[in-house]
């Protein structure tokens, strides 16, 4: 079954599994749910929750479906691959992987490119994603989604 990772404990092969799980969620937010454990989910340590669009954590299929569906009106065509462009950090912790990568998407309405750098810590349990901890720059998201703007002038 493609929703369970059964390959070797190889960070690059796990990256392929993770990329397959995540790519395309902007068109179908539920497509990634089978890749996660029933109590699995995403953590966003730097999410600016005071803007109402972002959450610090979504755990379980229903919460993931609600959260990612709420983002669909804002962007489309998310692409975080290919994994050959990712920076992969090897850990001694079993079944835990750290990846650095750049994702792009199109901002709906404006057609503007959304480009975000990520550091993700992914933990597998039984061949499924238990935790996907995603670190990203909240300013980029706030600016590109029109929730914040740069101040004009020289910032010296």
UniProtKB/TrEMBL annotation:
Domain SnoaL-like: 21-130
Parts forming coiled coils: none
InterPro entries: NTF2-like_dom_sf, SnoaL-like
Domain of life: Bacteria
Pfam families referenced in this protein's UniProt entry, alphabetically: SnoaL_2
Protein known as: Nuclear transport factor 2 family protein
């Amino acid at each position: 079954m493609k929703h369970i990772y059964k390959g070797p404990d190889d960070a690059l092969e796990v990256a392929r599994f993770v990329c397959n799980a995540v790519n395309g969620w902007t068109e179908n937010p539920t497509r990634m749910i089978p890749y996660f454990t029933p109590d699995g989910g995403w953590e966003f340590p730097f999410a600016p929750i005071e803007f109402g669009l972002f959450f610090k954590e979504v755990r379980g299929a229903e919460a993931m479906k609600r959260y990612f569906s709420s983002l669909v009106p804002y962007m489309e065509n998310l692409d975080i691959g290919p994994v050959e462009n990712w920076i992969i950090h090897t850990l001694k912790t079993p079944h835990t992987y750290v990846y650095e990568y750049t994702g792009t998407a199109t901002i709906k309405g404006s057609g503007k490119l959304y480009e975000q750098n990520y550091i993700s810590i992914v933990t597998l349990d039984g061949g499924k994603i238990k935790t996907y901890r995603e670190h990203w720059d909240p300013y980029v998201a706030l600016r590109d989604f029109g929730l914040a703007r740069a101040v004009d002038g020289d910032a010296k």
